[in-house]
Every structure is written in C-alpha cells, then in structure tokens.
C-alpha cells in the first residue's frame, strides 16, 4: 500500500470530480486539512464561484474519503523545524511536508512553487497517481 499526503488543493481537485481513489492507496493529511477545505469552499461560495449545494456535495465527498488525519506533537515539532529551516512565515505547508517525511511515501500537490521548494525533502506526486485506473 502506498501512502500519500494530500493538501487542500488536491482534496478539492478530487472532490470537484468525485474521483475514485485506487484501492491500494492510503490518504493521509494533517488535521488542519478539514478546516482549510471548509474555509476554501466557504470563500468560493461567497465569491459566487460555486453554489452552496455544490460546496455541500464536495464536503460530503471529502467526508466519505478514507483519510487518516494526524496532528500529534511529533508532527507539530517536525513542521516547526521544517518551516524554520525553509524560512517560511508560517507552518501550514510545513505540516503537510513534515507528515510526508514521517508517515508517507509522497506528497501530492498542485502547487508547483511548493513542490519545487520541498522536492529535496520529500517525493512529489501528481494527483492522477491517486486515481483508479480507467
């Protein structure tokens, strides 16, 4: 089984299409993913990019995914150190990268800048690797 850390960008990418995740993959994320996704969908509804019904559908899809959420002190300590090492202003992205280092095989992100910044620390994967083959 391959373990992948997904960020909020990938979670929403998957939710938009209602993607089927391959059975031999396990998804992992920091507990903060839930709040970030909720906030991003709320902002999208406020801007008029999606309807409330569509946001609810995406949230329901994400709630149904088998994602293992982690947020213990070991992860927090590792994220803090990584954010310091990279000179980042906060620890949000560092939690995803630290979790990948601690618990997963690869980090899946759509953010090319983030991927480039952390490619020396973790393996980066494209979202398509998560999907059930057609």
Give a brief description:
The protein is of the alpha/beta class and 134 residues long.
What keyword list fits this structure?
6 helices; 54% helix; single chain; globular; five-stranded parallel beta sheet; 5 strands; 15% strand; 134 residues; alpha/beta; Rossmann fold
Write the layout of secondary structure elements.
Blueprint lengths: L1 E5 L1 H10 L7 E6 L1 H16 L4 H13 L2 E4 L2 H14 L5 H12 L2 E3 L3 H7 L5 E2 L9
Parallel strand pairs: 1-2, 1-4, 2-3, 4-5
What does this structure look like?
This protein is α/β, with parallel strands linked by helices and 134 residues long. It has a single domain, classed as 5'-nuclease (Rossmann fold, 3-Layer(aba) Sandwich). 54% of the residues lie in helices and 15% in strands. The protein has 6 helices and 5 strands; from the N terminus they run βαβααβααβαβ. A 5-stranded parallel sheet has the order 3-2-1-4-5, with helices on both faces. It is globular, with a radius of gyration of 15 Å. The model has no long low-confidence stretch (mean pLDDT 96).
CA-CA gap between termini:
19 Å
Proper CATH architecture: 3-Layer(aba) Sandwich
Query: How many distinct beta strands?
Result: 5
CATH class: Alpha Beta
- Class computed from helices, strands and strand pairing: alpha/beta
The number of distinct structural domains comes to 1
What is the CA-based Rg, rounded? 15 Å
Main sheet, how many strands, which sense, barrel? 5 strands, parallel
**CATH level-3 fold name:** Rossmann fold
């Amino acid at each position: 089984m391959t373990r992948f850390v997904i960020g909020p960008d990938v979670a929403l990418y998957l939710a938009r299409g209602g993607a089927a995740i391959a059975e031999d993959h396990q998804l992992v994320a920091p507990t903060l993913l839930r709040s970030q996704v909720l906030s991003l969908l709320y902002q999208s509804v406020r801007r008029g990019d999606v309807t409330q019904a569509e946001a609810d559908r995406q949230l329901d899809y994400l709630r149904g995914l088998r994602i293992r959420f982690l947020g213990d002190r070991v992860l927090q300590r590792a994220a803090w150190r990584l954010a310091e090492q990279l000179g980042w202003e906060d620890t949000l992205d560092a939690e995803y990268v630290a979790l990948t280092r601690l618990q997963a095989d690869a980090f899946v992100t759509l953010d090319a800048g983030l991927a480039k910044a952390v490619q020396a620390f973790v393996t980066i994967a494209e979202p398509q690797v998560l999907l059930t083959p057609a």
